[in-house]
Amino acid sequence: MAVHSKTTNILEEETPGCYIKARYVLAVMTALATLNAYSLRNGINIAIVNMTVSHSPDNSTTTGTCARQINMTITDDKPKDVDFDWSITEQTLVMGSFYYGYCVTNFPGAWMAKRYGIRIVLGVSSLLCALLTLLVPVVARSSLALLVALRITLGILQGVTFPTAWVAWGNWAPPLERSRLVSITLSGLSMGYFVVYPVVGGIVSSLGWEASFYITGAIGILFSVVWLSIIHNTPSEHPRISRQEKDYIEQSIHGDKVPRETEAIPWLKMAKSVPVWATIASHLTENYLTFSLGIMAPTYIARVHGLEIKSVGFLAAIPFLIRLILNLGGSFIADMILTKRLTRVITVRKVASVLPMTISSISLVVLGYLNCNTWPAVALISVSGGILGLTSSGHACSFVDIAPRFGGIIYSVSNTLASLMGFVAPQISGALLSDNSVSSWKKVFWLAAAIGAFGAVIFLIFASDQLQTWAKGEDLTRNEKQELRYLIKEPKEQWDNDIAEKKTESQLLRK
Fold first, then answer.
1. Angle of CA points 185, 188, 192, to nearest 5°
2. Is the pTM of the predicted complex or chain greater than 0.70?
3. Which pLDDT tens digit goes with each residue over 98-107?
4. Positive or negative: CA dihedral 291, 294, 295, 299
5. Which of 392, 395, 435, 438 could form a disulfide linkage to 183, CB 3.0–4.6 angstroms apart?
6. What angle do CA 454, 331, 189 make, to 5 degrees?
7. What pLDDT does 97 receive?
């Protein structure tokens, strides 16, 4: 049965035989790319618990603030498997230094992906990241400064990952599949925490912290080889894509003319656009919430509640399992709502961003007042982190909604600013944590909640789904005019007539 798009009225003819759509293969591979990236960058967040000593205010080693409060037996002796006597500030520096490099290469990554193609850019960067990860144990034992430098270099290489994915969807994603394809890509983020944290926790517990870097590095090399073997830059370059899928993708995205590779980027108009900055603000503040939980939650669970490394890995991963489920489930619901035209695009985007960020912020505030109630605290961490999975159908799609021609460029700028939160969040948290007391952590949670609430308000007031005038180009294609017509809610009867005409035309052409 032919599939049609109400946005473009382009039909996708059924491909004969057993055929897996090339864009779905790309979606799975981009999800694995983000999973691989997060495994290489975040494994240290768990491993560092066993690599280092936890310090109380008097500099003695501890097994958890709450453990002390309930008179658990602890020792001031350095554990046998601990190799580094780093302070809390030094630990947060190691975890956050990755993002000093990461924020540098987002925009160059988008440019390189457009210039040299998504296949080579992401494949080579992933391979180099995997090789660097194998060196972490040796470098860590030699010098803290060298380890920080390695983490910065890892960030520089990984900065191309997400911009490359957005460039890919600029060439591969039909308009009414944007939510689900972007969400599948972003599901790798949730899996990067959900899979990596318990797996690394188990590896560290059984084989030692060094093994976690050797194993994730080896898996990264395997992924890179597979990516370079099966991924292609555009539908027209893919040797195994069906004619039906290729025609559908290219017509639904580009309409009647081939996009110009040398099209000028309207930087000034882009910089003056309120919807662009509203989307960036939401992206930036959502990242602060994500990084605060993703980087600091394992430390909070281990240092405050005194749980063992296996439990830390599992419990820190629960929010991201919830996030994964909501990420994928929410995206299919969002696309279904838009396909059936049950409400406006902007309503879907705002609900999917504002609601989860508000719930996450409230949960963090409450978390700060739970003191040593471990399981309610874990439950609130799970809610606060998990609910953010819905944002993949919100501001994450707005980049393409407001400027399809420049979605990858805008996203690269936004992700550059948002990735600053990767080192800002742990560094601020480290500064606020004068010790591992519950009162110090309360400050961390209050600040994250305030930042998340601010982003929700900005997106609620200023976000838009309208194609911006500066993003239309010199002349609109027939396809773009139809997309604008959809956005302003042309009567459904006219759409039905258009679809009937297109079906008749398609049938005549086949005859």
1. 160
2. no
3. 888 888 888 8
4. positive
5. 392
6. 70
7. 87
The SS3 assignment for 240 reads coil
Q: Give the pLDDT confidence score for residue 326 in this predicted structure.
A: 87
Look at the block and give the residue holding tokens 């690269």. 412
Spatial distance between the Cα atoms of 312 and 34, rounded to a whole number of angstroms: 22
Position 58 scores a pLDDT of: 40
Count of beta carbons in the 10 Å neighbourhood of residue 142: 10
Note whether 54 and 63 are within 8 A (CB).
yes
Do strands 3-4 and 11-12 pair parallel, antiparallel, or not at all (unpaired)? Answer: antiparallel
Question: Is 249 in contact with 25 (CB distance < 8 Å)?
Answer: no
What would the two tokens of residue 183 be?
């969400």
CB atoms near residue 511 (< 10 Å): 5
* Residue ranges of the chain with per-residue pLDDT less than 70: 1-13, 53-65, 67-82, 254-263, 294-295, 309-310, 434-436, 473-511
Q: Are 450 and 442 in contact (CB under 8 A)?
A: no
CA distance 84 to 128: 26
Tokens of 445: 């949670």
Helix (H, G, I), strand (E, B) or coil at 91: helix
- How far, in Å, are 99, 252, 385, 448 from residue 362 at the CA level? 27, 41, 12, 10
Query: Which pLDDT value is given to residue 281?
Result: 93
Q: Which bin fits 463, alpha (ψ -120 to 50), beta or left (φ > 0)?
A: beta
- pLDDT tens digits along 239-271: 989 888 888 888 877 665 545 545 677 888 888
Q: Is 52 helix (H, G, I), strand (E, B) or coil?
A: strand
SS3 content of the chain, % helix, strand, coil (to 5): 75, 0, 25
Give the C-alpha separation, 282 to 458, whole Å: 7
- CA torsion through residues 131, 137, 139, 140, sign: positive
> CA-based Rg of the chain, rounded to a whole angstrom?
24
As beta bridge partners, residue 55 has 61
Whole-angstrom distance, CA of residue 39 vs CA of residue 199: 10
Residue bearing tokens 């820190």: 316
Q: Give the tokens for residue 325.
A: 């489920």
